[in-house]
Specification:
Blueprint: E1 9-13, H1 16-22, E2 32-37, H2 45-51, E3 57-62, E4 79-83, H3 95-108, E5 112-116, H4 122-125, H5 139-149
Parallel strand pairs: 1-2, 2-3, 3-4, 4-5
Helix pairs in contact: 1-2
Length: 159
């Protein structure tokens, strides 16, 4: 991943404790984005584990969103992705959960990406939230990745 600096890698885990253990051994680069899945309130601790890493870009994948996540601490988080569960046994996502997360991101100035409503037929359900699609990306991180690709940012992280 480090050698292919022209690509952006989004690494996602539910094993945030393991991520925290490995953090000092990993050679982070600006093109390696690290994220954790947080499906509901029970998994909030994963956010703190992510925040403690040396990753240049930290993101939350709040999917499948199975419950409300009020009052998230978004300090040190660069991007939030929200989506509902899909497939034949998909549990529904309450629209108020997605709207609340969008509002929290707006208040914290964190880019918000609404991926999908989910459901048995996710394409039919679509990805429009309150009349529009939400495709925000972390602009500072995009700039950093671009600079890295031009050799203007060192690719080694010294712990």
């Amino acid at each position: 991943m480090r050698r292919a600096h022209w690509h952006r890698f989004q690494v996602l885990t539910k094993r945030s404790e393991r991520l925290a253990q490995l953090n000092q051994k990993l050679e982070w680069a600006p093109n390696i984005w690290m994220g954790v899945s947080v499906e509901g309130d029970k998994y909030r601790a994963r956010i703190d584990h992510l925040r403690a890493t040396s990753s240049f870009v930290k993101f939350l994948s709040l999917e499948p969103l199975l419950g409300p996540l009020p009052n998230l601490n978004l300090k040190g988080i660069d991007w939030v992705i929200v989506g509902g569960e899909s497939g034949p046994n998909a549990r529904p996502m309450d629209p108020s959960w997605a709207k609340n997360l969008r509002d929290q991101c707006r208040d914290a100035k964190v880019p918000f990406f609404f991926k999908q409503w989910g459901g048995k037929n996710k394409k039919q359900a679509g990805r429009v939230l309150e009349g529009r699609t939400w495709d925000q990306m972390p602009s500072a991180a995009l700039e950093l990745s671009t600079l890295c690709g031009r050799g203007q940012v060192p690719l080694t992280v010294v712990a």
